[in-house]
Design brief:
single chain, mainly beta, Jelly Rolls, 3-stranded antiparallel beta sheet, RmlC-like_jellyroll, Signal peptidase I
Length: 123
């Protein structure tokens, strides 16, 4: 990083942090990727990949854009299938959700604000 500029690769940089590239969880201080305003994720999902548990009590707004493949977002009482590159879905605070990748998929997620929580703990 040089003078507030960071250049990287989403797949490589996100690999060590669950795909997340920018947000409150990045090192505070001089790392320009640290933000409490927004989070950005490059999600690479193999066929059959699913979220281990539903997100409930959501406090953020999110935008999920399909880059490639197919991806299904699950909401209480509604499923949304993203099938064409550029398809997207936006949901707001209070909307419970989960997801499933019926085939290999790459998605870009932007959430705001960036707040701790919502990570599935491995048990």
């Amino acid at each position: 990083m040089d003078e507030g500029i960071y250049v990287g690769n989403a797949a490589k940089d996100g690999a060590g942090n669950g795909g997340w590239l920018l947000g409150h969880f990045m090192p505070a201080g001089l790392d320009v990727r640290h933000s409490t305003d927004v989070e950005v994720k490059w999600g690479v999902h193999p066929p059959g990949d699913t979220r281990a548990e539903w997100v409930t009590g959501e406090r953020r707004t999110a935008l999920l854009v399909l880059v490639s493949g197919r991806f299904r977002m699950e909401f209480r009482g509604r499923s949304v299938v993203l099938a064409e590159p550029g398809d997207y879905v936006v949901w707001g605070p209070g909307v419970d959700h989960s997801w499933y990748a019926p085939e290999e998929a790459v998605v870009l997620t932007v959430r705001w604000p960036s707040v701790p929580g919502y990570r599935v703990t491995s048990g």
